[in-house]
Amino acid sequence: MKPIYSFFLFPLLVFIVQVNAFAQRTVVSGTVRDAVTKETLPNVSVFFKDTQIGTQTDINGKYTIVSPNPQSELSFNYVGYRTVFKNIVASATQEFDIALVPDARALDEVVIVGGKKVRYRNKDNPAVELIRQVIAHKDENRIKSYNTVSYREYEKMLFSLSNVSDKFRNKRMFRNYQFLFQEQDSTLIGGKNLLPVYIQEKLADNYLSKNPEKNKTIVIGEKQVQFDSRYIDNKGLKTYFDRMYQDIDIYKNNISVISNEFLSPIADGAPAFYKFFITDTIKTQKPEIIELSFTPRNTGDMLFEGKIYVTNDSHYAVTGASFGVNKNINLNFVRALKIDLDFEANDKGKYSLSKSNLLADFGIGKTKGIGFTGERTVTFKNYQFDTALPDTIFQGKSTVVLADAAKRNDQFWEKNRLDTISKNQLKIYGNIDTLQNLPSFKRTMKIVTLLFAGYQNLGPYEIGPVNTFYSFNNVEGLRLRLGGRTTPELSKRYYFENYVAYGIKDEKWKFFLSGTYSLNNKSIYEFPQNYIRASFQRDTKIPGQELQFVQEDNFLLSFKRGVNDMLLYNDFYRLDYVKEFENHFSYNLGFKKWSQTPAGGLNYLNSDNQLVNRLTTSEVSLQLRYAPNEKFYQGKIYRVPIADRYPVFTLRYTAGLKGVLGGEYNYHNFLGSIDKRFYLSQLGYSDVTVEGSYIAGKVPFPLLDIHRANQTYAYQLNSYNLMNFLEFVSDHYVSINIDHNFNGFFFNKVPLLKRLKLREVVSFKALYGGLRNENNPNYQTGLYQLPIYENGAQRTYALGNQPYMEGSVGVGNIFKLLRVDLVRRFNYLNNPEVSEWGIRARVKFDF
Questions:
Q1: What integer pLDDT is reported at residue 453 of this predicted model?
Q2: Helix or strand holding residue 573 (H, E)
Q3: Are the C-beta atoms of residues 605 and 784 closer than 8 Å to each other?
Q4: Which residues are the signal sequence here (predicted)?
Q5: Alpha carbons 446 and 435: distance in angstroms, whole number
């Protein structure tokens, strides 16, 4: 949640401290038609008279226009029709349907069409034939058609609180700081006041090669607002914004916007999902330009609507585009989205992108309350095509930031910006420093940081996470915990983490302490990592539950179903060395001594039916990981990988050492996994994990692969949600986990569900494994007996000839945050204390 917290920190802050007044709002909606044919009219301009607040009708002639202030008159303008002015009721919500009369003076001919509305068809549709020509000529028009390309790129990103009310602006904390606010001049976004909170600029040279395929970006200069690092992570914020606002390439089949994949209007399959209309022909230039309007066939799908401009010649090149999204789209928190692309003819007779602008306005409500507006403008100049580029340019990393890029002075930026920047925008750098010095702002930031980040920052040390302060289970009873970690303010080389916990029922203290030393003088969370860590942990855990998958002392995970009385008391001594390389290959070399003592309903009984109080192992491990093109939400004290289309490969080898520091067993454990996200365009995306393991050696069941089960009511992506704890063990297995999100593809077609903006999710998990006779206590002496219930029923099993399987169907995006799954277990239903069906829930924030 930390990247999300960074992105929404300012809007959340404002929502907490503001009470909006909407008594003055004027809202008008309706439909615009041709007075003669009664056909609806798309793209009619609608404005509040004498204001810049306006909108356009959609493809069905519908419009909605909102003003936070009283308005008394509307104007309707459309080429070839008489302008209409309509009196309205100020400060009210109302509907007006308008009929526009054709202007005979502006028309050479009026064709009156009677009868029923013609159904849209692709067949014999000149607009569809045109778009198919554009699709067929994509490869020759995109920038990758050249052998080599070089160009300079200037990027400006600006973020502001939008729709700021006068009441909020006049609060006491801003009384002497009115200069922080700016007038809002965009007709796309409601309201009149802006409070700019962030700006960043970047200047870079780019180089592309077709054969062999290579690319290189050299960042010459970069500049951004710097927030107080105690509350906001500047690097993480920049990474998150860069992920949200990626480059717009209309020639790609899918365009990534706001962390979602949208089908391009000129994608190979676009005619199946879009409606196209030829709406104008510009004959004042050569070649002629055709204006092509498009709209989704289903307005709830992840699709755009707008216009593209195409050359009327044999190349069918895109010369410009202006598009956004339909108001009914199944997209969370997005009030408005506008993308403009400008292309210029180059010396090769083709068109190259010269400017890209992406503007998005976010808010909890569609029109009410303060929003958060982000705008990214990218300017491209100095194109050079098919020139010889030396191989040395492409050596090293694909993106290089010059050492002094962040130190460029004002004179450098004035000289090298490829686009204009207003004085008000330049003031943001200084204004934010002023805003952060407001005492009331600092107080609120501390509260918001604690609530949404989970840690209370004390400078060199921070306390948390707060969701682990209190939890409970059957063995410990009420469990209290307090801990924290150091921050880079203490040291950039040394990092410490600790906690202490106490169980009221078992009356035992638990604690954890780790010390980490960075070998490259960088934060241990910063790529590339290179550190050594030593730690000791005395605590409880459920057998088979690894902490990277489940944080067991999370309060919300304390509620569990069924019999849940098996626990281990553990002593972990660990020493780890981690090394990452620039190509995203890494290795982890570790040593661990582990002493475990069963507790609660779990007992270790040897083949002579004697209790074993303690099991000790010593092991060394080597983990190799390769994640090509991996990106992170990387912050000061955290790092979260971004799920993307690139696979992640992991291979781990662990060797048990008998006789070393009390180790009781020799064994070898081999584990490999592949994780990948598959984007399926309009059908959403699938997260797929394939995993396998093999253990060589004779070991008791606590050292086997105890498959990850889940007895909580939370849906866990990496666990088997209807498997009981310690129900299955294996010494060899393969598994597959598929979790697919349809992004509302089917629900968007159901009228009763469309307005709810729900999203369908399905999952399937299969686990095929087994237990060799040498590790099965039913066939081999000298091993621990498999656990049983108090009534003598078997509790732990080896997988048989058929795999364990479970699947789920679910509904996501409930209240924009909740996913609920109906889970079914397909087999092994005769095992005691199991359920064939279950309902699980998961909180998931997503756009």
A1: 66
A2: strand 566-580
A3: yes
A4: 1-23
A5: 15
> Whose CA is closest to 362, among 14, 844, 788?
14
- Can you tell me whether residue 681 is helix, strand or coil? helix
User: In one letter, which amino acid is 174?
Assistant: F
Number of H helices, E strands in the chain: 10, 45
- In whole angstroms, what is the distance from residue 600 CA to residue 790 CA? 11
Tell me which amino acid residue 420 is: T
Would you call 631 exposed, middle or buried from its count of C-beta atoms within 10 A (0-12, 13-18, 19+)? Answer: middle
CB-based contact 352:380 (threshold 8 Å): yes
Strand runs (DSSP E) across 363-455, as ranges?
A: 371-385, 399-401
Angle in degrees, 0-180, between the axes of helices 439-453 and 2-17, rounded to the nearest 10: 130
At residue 729, the pLDDT reads 96
Residues 6+ apart with CB under 8 A from 308: 134, 250, 265, 266, 292, 294, 318, 320, 321, 323
Token pair listed for 38: 């009664």
Please state, in angstroms and rounded to a whole number, the distance separating the CA atoms of residues 759 and 254.
Answer: 20
User: Cis peptide leading into 465, omega within 30 of 0?
Assistant: yes
Contact between 266 and 308 (Cβ < 8 Å)? yes
**Tokens linked to 121:** 């068809």
Q: Whose CA is closest to 646, among 626, 621, 664, 666?
A: 626
Which residues are within 8 A (CB) of 302 and not within 5 positions of it... i.e. 6 or more apart?
260, 261, 262, 263, 329, 330, 331, 682, 743
pLDDT digits (tens, 9 = 90+) for 43-82: 788 888 877 677 888 777 888 888 877 888 888 888 778 8
Alpha-carbon Rg of the chain, whole angstroms?
31
Helix (H, G, I), strand (E, B) or coil at 451: helix
487 and 638 in contact (C-beta within 8 Å)?
no
**Of residues 360 and 265, which shows the higher confidence score?**
265
Strand spans (E) along 283-363: 289-296, 305-311, 318-324, 334-345, 351-362
pLDDT reading at 8 higher than 50 = no
Cβ atoms of residues 620 and 657 within 8 Å: yes
Q: What is the predicted pLDDT for the residue at 184?
A: 63
Distance CA 189, CA 4 (A): 23
3-state secondary structure 620-634: EEEEEEECCCCCEEE
SS3 label, residue 221: strand
Average pLDDT rounded to a whole number, residues 141-146: 91
Alpha carbons within 13 angstroms on the beta-carbon side of residue 530 total 9
Angle, helix 2-17 to helix 234-244, in steps of 10 degrees:
100
Strand partners, 112: none
Q: 370, 333 in Cβ contact below 8 A?
A: no
Query: What does the alpha-carbon distance between residue 316 and residue 135 come to, in Å, rounded to a whole number?
Result: 9
Residue pair 737/765 in contact by the 8 Å Cβ criterion: yes
Q: In Å, how far from its chain's centre is CA 40?
A: 38
Question: Distance between CA atoms of 716 and 560, rounded to whole angstroms?
Answer: 13
Q: Are 138 and 252 in contact (CB under 8 A)?
A: no
**CB 385 within 8 Å of CB 149:** yes
Q: Are strands 26-34 and 93-95 parallel, antiparallel or unpaired?
A: parallel
Q: What is the largest CA-CA distance in the chain?
A: 105
CA distances from 280 to 43, 117, 291, 310 (A): 12, 21, 5, 11
Whether residue 721 contacts residue 838, with contact meaning beta carbons closer than 8 Å, is answered with: yes
The model's confidence at residue 10, banded by pLDDT at 50, 70 and 90, is very low
Model pTM score: 0.79
Instruction: For residue 624, count CB atoms less than 10 angstroms from its CB and return exposed for 0-12, middle for 13-18, buried for 19 or more.
Output: middle
**Whether the Cβ atoms of residue 351 and residue 320 lie closer than 8 Å to each other:** no
Taking only the tens place, the pLDDT of each residue in 305-320 is 999 999 999 999 999 9
pLDDT average, residue stretch 726-741: 96
Q: Which residues pair with residue 714 across a beta bridge?
A: 841
